[in-house]
Amino acid sequence: MKKLFLSAAVVVSSLTFAQQFGIKAGMNVSSLSKDADLSDQGSKIGYNAGIFMNAPIAENFSIQPELIYNNLGSKVTLNEFDVNNTTYRTEYARHLDYVALPVMFQYNATPSFYLEAGPEFGLLVSARDKRKNTENGTTQNSVKSELDKDNFNSFNAGIGLGAGYYFTPQVGLTARYVAGLTDIMKDRASGDAVKNNVFQVGLAYKF
């Protein structure tokens, strides 16, 4: 029994020693989709930023929990027309901001390259809409409106798949797709569930 506890202590100590902490930031390309039709999506550019911890759990495997701020949502063009060589466009965007906790299980194919998969859990902190009118790409007016968070589910869950490559032991490029599992709206009487989907790309730095 003493040998068992000693072995466990050695393993825990080695994992603690091998832990690495870091920061990450990047771009989101997000959309909102319905179960019945995943092809008709309007995507929007957003951002993500946060911190992470990477800890080995086996020779080629590690676990990476993260705490990130995620700007999700979607953008669609409501109308667009040309008059006298001037293009008029009205765009509508929904911004949903979450504090997210991804927990990624990583397979380290090489010391520099890894594949990952795992769940992501999020808490809604902000919901707003933005409507913008442009002429030949120049913004003429823009209206922002805060939305009642009580109409949205505060909890969001998804499943992520991704990969990463470290150019140096500290600096790496990351890419991940997270497919939503939960409806963003609360108490939906009818209709298809609307879910968050996002492709993320960014840079990571390990201390």
From TrEMBL:
Entry-linked InterPro entries: Beta-barrel_OMP_2 (IPR025665), OMP/PagP_B-barrel (IPR011250)
Signal sequence, start to end: 1-18
A Pfam family per the record: OMP_b-brl_2
Keywords noted in UniProt: Signal
Domain Outer membrane protein beta-barrel residue range list: 17-185
Superkingdom as given in the UniProt entry: Bacteria
Coiled coil segments of this chain: none
Protein name as it appears in the record: Opacity protein
The organism of origin for this protein: Kaistella solincola
